[in-house]
Design goal:
With 299 residues, this protein is mainly α. It has 15 helices and no strands.
């Protein structure tokens, strides 16, 4: 279906391209990237790194998301959650979307090379390729462990923020990556349970489709325990203080409660509610890290 300028307001066209970048996902990634930057240094982050570093990461993430739209356009057209996406409805062509993705990625890489350092640019490129090529192009259709293996690419932003500010990798940002890596399976599998029939119809081997809902719920519960343990590690290694510890325990306990509710099947819509809470969980956990960090600086 071609785009007919006369039948659509010009404003809708840029919105279609904005949707290709998955802006809500990118915003959550940028929050973790910002936290990585601010945790990396006590001297403050230069404004050029703060602005152009995060913009470069965002552009690369948006480019990877656009590639995801292209590869998944057949699947998106089948699923209720995604059938109105620009490529699924034919409002943007695959060629135009890939060109858009390439431009975003090139601009992002140029900004990272100009305003941060080569390490950050290379790590960002690896993350982009990991999500757009390895996960979207192969793992998503190859194994029910797709989100576990591919989750590493999505867990990279705090490491990218850290290296943008410091130019090197250390244990602390890798721990932040590990937190997001442990968070990804219970986060996404909860959505997969909610959308099980759609994934089955699209022939995507998500865990609830291949192994059943009970098996998936058990693994959500197990990964939530792992996440709770991993989320306490910043306090254990003295990366954070008591404020973060209290927040991590409270947020983790609530996540665990939702995982138990989902496992028991005692509430309607538990899967989608668990998914929604997981987003708030990650956002609030990283904000707690940041607030605790500056509280410690002022003590």
């Amino acid at each position: 279906m071609a785009i007919l300028i006369g039948e659509r307001p010009s404003q809708a066209i840029w919105r279609d391209y904005l949707e290709l970048t998955k802006p809500k996902v990118v915003v959550l990634m940028l929050i973790t990237s910002l936290v990585g930057m601010f945790l990396a240094t006590r001297a403050g982050v230069p404004w050029t790194v703060l602005v152009f570093g995060n913009l470069g990461i965002a552009l690369c993430a948006g480019g990877a998301a656009a590639v995801n739209h292209v590869v998944d356009r057949r699947i998106d057209a089948i699923m209720a959650r995604t059938h109105k996406r620009p490529l699924a409805e034919g409002r943007v062509s695959p060629t135009a979307a890939l060109t858009f993705a390439l431009v975003l990625a090139a601009l992002g890489q140029a900004m990272l090379l100009a305003f941060t350092n080569p390490l950050t640019a290379w790590l960002t490129l690896a993350s982009l390729l990991g999500y757009a090529v390895i996960y979207t192009g192969f793992l998503k259709r190859a194994t029910p462990q797709n989100i576990v293996i591919g989750g590493l690419a999505g867990a990279a932003p705090p490491l990218l923020g850290w290296t943008a500010a410091t130019g090197h990798v250390s244990a602390e940002p890798l721990l932040l990556v590990l937190i997001i890596f442990a968070w990804t399976p219970p986060h996404f599998w909860a959505l997969a349970i909610h959308r099980k029939e759609e994934y089955a119809k699209a022939d995507i081997p998500m865990l609830p489709v291949t192994h059943g809902e009970h098996y998936t719920k058990v693994h959500i519960l197990l990964y939530t325990f792992v996440l709770l343990a991993v989320s306490l590690m910043p306090y254990v290694i003295h990366m954070s203080g008591t404020l973060y510890l209290v927040c991590a325990l409270g947020l983790g306990a609530r996540f665990l409660q939702w995982a138990v509710v989902l496992y028991r099947g005692t509430r309607p819509h538990a899967a989608i509610n668990t998914f929604k809470y997981s987003i708030y969980y990650l956002f609030l956990l990283f904000i707690a890290l940041l607030v605790d960090h500056y509280l410690l600086l002022n003590l």
